[in-house]
Amino acid sequence: MYPRDLLLQERLCPIMSAKGQLRRFENRAQLLRHISEETGTDIDTLWDEYEAQVE
Amino acid sequence: MGDDTDLDLSFAIDSETVSLSPIGEYQVLDLEGPVVIVGDASYRVVPVGEESDQPEDVRELGVDEIRAALNELADNDDFQSIVDNCPTNTPLVYDDIDYLTRHLPTTSLQKCQELSESTPFDKELLLQVAYVERQNSLVGHSDNVLEYYLEQRAEIAEKLRSTDEIGSEIERSFFSYLLLASALIEELTTETVLNELFREEARLDSITEHVRSMGHAKRLEKLCDIQILTEDDHGSLVEVKERRNNLVHDAQKRAGLDELESRREVAQILEKTDRCASVLLTISGKNIESVIAKRGCEPYIEHAQSEAVADTITTWEQENPERLSRLHDCERAALEEIRWDTEESDPGNNITEGFTFDGFDDEELYEILMEFVGDAAKAFLDRIDADANESNLDRFDFAVMVLLCAGHSYEEIARWLDTDEKYVQRKENVIAWRASQFEKDLVEEIPRPEGPTWPSDTASDDQDAC
Q1: Could you report the per-residue pLDDT of B362-378, keeping only the tens digit for each?
Q2: What is the CA radius of gyration of chain B?
């Protein structure tokens, strides 16, 4: 394994246990409405987080 | 040769409404779990079916892990081979990983395991990322070609309008246009053959290779055989290919544009070629939103408009809060209930519910309303796009279903969807078998194939015999 990969492995937690369906959303409102309905998180909060993270 | 004809070009592909989703850079965000953003679209793992009572952590994915995997695997051949074998859609009721491990050929799964051992990534993550990549490459690739195509079309159209003679500039521009049109058409043809003829077995590299090696003429012939392509359109597509080959292989013909002598003649070929590309965009399911929007059945239009209005309100609450509150404050408006007549081209002038225009004279408020409805109309197309992607039917079959549910005749549907009437009849049978609860919920009642449908000549022969 390359040293870079070893570093990555050390950094990453093996928390992947994907159970579910991958869904494509066509715009931001579709996505955030879905997440809000699914998790109960306020859309305003999600919108701010989206804005803060997107480059 | 001089030509002073006033050129009025009319194209089949509307560059304003065609859905362009060029390949974009990935970004991975953490919004209550990972979300992969690609252009305007985004991907997220959502719960399977009705099992929303699963433990919270069951869908945990590592944001950093996905971000790292996307960066690390982009140029990996083994990973690309897994991507190529992934499906473009999975049934709604199954977990993706469960489904993918059952779907992929053994060699791909072995590659996935080996890749997992030689990289820091779990094999499940690799599959999930490959599936995102597959979906995105399918949506994105020909759309990128489409984008270049539309640019080149605009260029040659402008050159034709602004000059009186066919000079070397027009020749070069037309040749570039024809090359891009051919590339777009060939790519969409391959995709349609794989979808229609091989369906789930298109997952195999060998099948993809087989279809690519068939040659374009053979692929078109197959599409004509199964009647997704009408004979007339097949003939026109063959002409495009022949014209392209003539110009590519013969420098003299290229210089003289294969004996096209007037701007009008070039314009006619331009329009005809564009119509061919438009047919392929439709039958490959890439440009069906506007037809569904205009001709879809009432329950589906109601669902899609209602979701679109809710999406638009969500966006305006963040981006236009003051203007939204002006609409909310207006006693004549019931924003959530706004609907419009989809058969008319301008939704703003065709609001059917949610707003009373009686004696309306506040111009500023009127402009805000028009802008809101304009945004809702765009969100409406986005919602149709999302539903077509999510459906268990492929995108073109989804369009056929929504139009059949509206009670249109086979002939009308075939005309609007650029296909053969026989194909629509056959798809009615297929939909009766394959429609899932998702589609049933959207359209309320699935069309039922009833009564024999003999070709008209045979029918009259039968009558004659009686």
Answers
A1: 788 888 999 999 999 99
A2: 25
CB contact under 8 A, A22 and B62: no
| pLDDT digits 0-9 by tens, B243-280 | 999 888 877 777 767 677 788 888 999 999 999 999 99
Domain residue limits at A48: 23-55
ipTM: 0.80
Note whether residue A17 is domain-resident. Answer: no
Residue B448's alpha-carbon distances to B146, B325, B402, B456, in angstroms, are: 36, 46, 13, 21
Do residue B120 and residue A12 have CB atoms under 8 angstroms apart?
yes
Q: What is the mean pLDDT of chain B?
A: 85
Q: What are phi and psi of B38, to 5 degrees?
A: -130, 105
Give the mean pLDDT of B41-56: 63
Segment A8-55, tens digit of pLDDT: 333 333 323 345 777 889 999 999 999 999 999 999 999 999 999 987
Most confident of B52-56, B394-398, B400-404: B400-404
Compare B303 and B359 and report the one with higher pLDDT. B303
Query: Is B74 within 8 Å of B25 (Cβ atoms)?
Result: no
pLDDT at B48: 66
Which residues of A are less than 8 Å from B312 in CB distance? 29
Strand partners, B45: A22
CA distance B63 to B43: 13
What is the strand order of the sheet B41-46 is part of?
A: A21-25, B41-46, B34-38, B26-30
Name the residue with higher pLDDT: B209 or B304: B304
- pTM of the shown model: 0.83
**What is the C-alpha separation between B406 and B419, in angstroms, rounded?**
18
CB contact residues (below 8 A), chain B span 182-241, against chain A: none
Task: Give SS3 for A24.
Answer: strand
Kindly state whether residue A47 falls inside one of the protein's structural domains.
yes
In a domain, A27, yes or no: yes
Domain assignment present for A3: no
Rounded to a whole number of angstroms, the distance from the CA of A24 to the nearest CA of chain B is: 5
- A42 close to B (CB below 8 A): no
**SS3 state at A6:** helix
Closest chain B residue by Cα to residue A19: B59
Determine the residue of chain B that is closest to A47 in CA distance.
B318
Cβ contact, residue pair A8, B48, below 8 Å: no
A contact test, residue of B36, B44, B119 with most A CBs within 10 A: B44
Number of domains in chain A: 1
